[in-house]
Amino acid sequence: MSADHTRDPCPIVILNDFGGAFAMGVIGGCVWHGIKGFRNSPYGERRIGAISAIKARVPVVGGNFGVWGGLFSTFDCSVKAIRKREDPLNAIIAGFFTGGALAIRGGWRHTRNSAITCACLLGVFEGVGMMFQRYMAWQNKPIAPPLPDQQPLQ
Amino acid sequence: MLSRMLGSQVATAARTIGARQGLRVTTAAAAHGQYQLRYISSSLIRSNDKKKDDKSNSILTDDLLAKAGVDVEEPTKSSANGEQESTTKNESEESSTEDQDGKPRKKRTRQSSTDVKRERAANLFYLGFFATAFGGIGYLARDWEEDEDKELKQNIPNGYSFDLMWKRFNARFSSIFTYFQEPPFPDLLPDSPPEPYKRPLTLVLTLEDFLIHSEWDTKNGWKTAKRPGVDYFLGYLSQYYEIVLFSSNYMMYSEKVVEKLDPLRAYISYQLYKEHCLYKDGAHIKDLSKLNRDISKVLIIENDENSIKLQPENAIKLAPWNGKADDELIKLIPLLEYLATQQIKDVRPVLASFKNKEKISEEFLERTEKLRQEFNKDQEKKGSTNLLNKLLGLPVVKQKFPLDAIHDEGVKNYQFFQKLVKEEEEKLKKQSEMPKETFKLKDIVEGNLPSQEEMMQKQLEKQLEFEKQQAQQASAAVAK
């Protein structure tokens, strides 16, 4: 049983993640390439320049993001299914494989470096998440309820 | 060189042939000579053609390929020496090592200035990385500080021998990870309340697949079901137990479920989550020894073997609920009621007396039935006293089975408590209209948040004020 009820369970969440990552890439790419196209166009054609830059490049950015998200989610689900455990190491292993798989056409060295970098990045994310979780737990430390005859301090 | 010489020879031979043909020598000897010459020349031309083919079967010379960044085997010395000399010399040092003395040359790699820069940066990075790692190891291996954890320091004295340094490093390094594996604070619960409010036992309940069950399907997404009788279970047992909900899920996801289960916080004293578990050997363990309660007075109901690894003798391990309607919760009540009302000093031996924990409620029922029958028999024997009462005209006292009497009392209490809760509910509804304390992001970042206790006190003050206001309004309305 998945712990997180805001997300679908495993095989279907891959599709979700792919779409989510694609949307993220498209939105971010629109901002990025919009500004870039705007700045790189001559005066008088700045708006059309921005739009054409967006049209040309944003689908690619979205696709890249989507492929990353989908692949990561696929690996994450596989790792979960194999390890039968849910902990931060899942994401790190999935990140390792994702980074490696996406760089595999660049040769063995590139694959290795990319996999390690990606795993480190995911490790940092997970570490920060865990620290935040701990902080939240510490913030919401259970406290004794007030006793009925106890007056609140003035 | 050889090929060049051959080429020039052939050229001259061909010229002579042409001249001879022009002369149209008709003598047989001459004809024979001509034939011979032709033969030689054609074979020479043919062989020369072959050489040419060898040299230039591709327009991409090794040189060009190398410039484009493709690794090529160094061309053998025999081919194209003259052309090699005319190639431009490279900037990089490696290419200058090529020699013409017949020694095998090094593999040639051409580097642009950015490549050189990049390599230098990478080298610097590696150097920095190893220096930091080395420094970090040294730092972790230093002598103990005074404010460090005493458990860490145990058995490892100060001093700078290799062995001791390694031990200190090891202890400190692993403590980084154990920090994340232990619950965020040592005592998970505050001290138990003073006597009139104190419950004799603490009941730790798991949430998932015990009180609730979640399912997912493509049509509706996630659905969470309450187990039949859960409200009664919590409401009824809260008079005997300090109920602690210990979820196997993170706070983020379970908090809302708890809010729905007990919106007024009338039944559940505390809730704990996966964050409060001890992580050990790949399992999240609900460590009862960290609850700040007497371990002999704590009971946990769990459906996961791993969660109760540390204190299995305090646990009632049930099969996980699969979401189908059942009366398992109601069946558990008599046993739990019995445990709480008998003033047991230690729950562990009592629990150990049950053979199969998964069917503990049935086993308990069997035992009580036996007792009840014996009790009834005894009562019949004592019937004679009742006869006497009848003769004297006194009302017949029929004694109840003690557990039933306790249950009756419990139900009365429960009903009374429900009334109180309903009254409180209306009050709380009004309070929810009260303005809430808000914090800005700045406060959170700067750590200006008040502690939980302070917040609660503020809330209580506000409540009092609010109640006063309401009373004034009411009196004003009456005066009108």
TrEMBL record, chain A:
The chain crosses the membrane at residues 12-32, 89-108, 114-132. Pfam families: Tim17. It is a multi-pass membrane protein. GO terms for cellular component: TIM23 mitochondrial import inner membrane translocase complex. It comes from the Eukaryota. GO terms for biological process: protein import into mitochondrial matrix. Coiled coil: none annotated. Essential component of the TIM23 complex, a complex that mediates the translocation of transit peptide-containing proteins across the mitochondrial inner membrane. NCBIfam families: 3a0801so1tim17. Belongs to the Tim17/Tim22/Tim23 family. Component of the TIM23 complex, at least composed of TIM23, TIM17, TIM50 and TIM21. This is Mitochondrial import inner membrane translocase subunit TIM17.
TrEMBL record, chain B:
Residues 196-339 form the FCP1 homology domain. Keywords: Coiled coil, Membrane, Mitochondrion, Mitochondrion inner membrane, Protein transport, Transit peptide, Translocation, Transmembrane, Transmembrane helix, Transport. InterPro entries: FCP1_dom, HAD-like_sf, HAD_sf, TIM50. It comes from the Eukaryota. Its main location: mitochondrion. The keyword Transport applies. It is found in: Mitochondrion inner membrane. Residues 70-115 are annotated as: Disordered. SUPFAM superfamilies: HAD-like. This is Mitochondrial import inner membrane translocase subunit TIM50. The lineage of its organism: Eukaryota, Fungi, Dikarya, Ascomycota, Saccharomycotina.
